Every structure is written in structure tokens, then in C-alpha cells.
Amino acid sequence: MENLSDRVTTKEAARILGVTGGRVRQMILNGQLPAKRFGRALTLSRSDVESLRGQAGRPKKGRTAKLATGNKLRKPRPKSLDEIIAESNVTPWTDADFERAAEIGKGLFDGFAEQVRKWRDQDELLEAD
Length: 129
Known about the structure:
This protein is mainly α. The chain has two domains: 4-70, Multidrug-efflux Transporter Regulator, Chain: A, Domain 2 (Orthogonal Bundle); 82-128, no CATH class. Helices cover 52% and strands 9% of the residues. The chain has a three-stranded antiparallel beta sheet. A hairpin with a 2-residue loop joins strand 2 (35-38) and strand 3 (41-45). It is elongated, with a radius of gyration of 23 Å. The two termini are 44 Å apart. The mean pLDDT is 76.
């Protein structure tokens, strides 16, 4: 796990960069600064912030900004559910998983497990077509 002493909050990053906290959050949303959540707070790598020192001024406005940044003003396309699942370590439940859940829940999950099995089977049929 990464050491928290190497992380800074958005407020600390704003102080380092000489900009406002809002500008730091804007840079995070634009993908200029990678951030991680720590509870409710966003934290940034101190080295990432230090590498942008002096470059994080106010963004240019108007036509010159579009020419200077190209398509960077456009928000990234949201990921599809398939892309999110492919990136995650989540694997589909097997029949043994459903049986174990039913065992643990002592019948509480039987109806749900059966419905999920039906959905999974329907998905497999649709993918086969």
C-alpha cells in the first residue's frame, strides 16, 4: 500500500501549485492529475503535484484554448459495464457459489439465486445468437 505521507490533499496541492482548490479539482476531472479517494477526501501523489508546479495556471479561454489543447476539453467517454467488469477482478458466480450462498443464508437466497441463474442462462443464450 502506498505511504500516506507521499499523498497530499487538494487543499495542499492548491497551495503547492499556487492555484485554487477548485482549479485542482478541475485538473483531476480533466485527467491532468490522478487522484485517489481516502475516505471522503481526494488525495494526490506529491510527486505528480510537484511535477506540475508552475504549469497549473488559469486555463486559456476561447479559440486559442481549443487550438492549444485540441480535444482535451472533451470529457472522456463513460465506460460500458462490460469494460468495467473486464477491468475488475470480479468473476461471475458459479453454481457452487449460489449453493454456498443458499447454505449460508439457510434458504434466504434460494429465490434470488434461482432468478439470477435464469438471468445468466438468458444472457448466455443471447450471447450465443
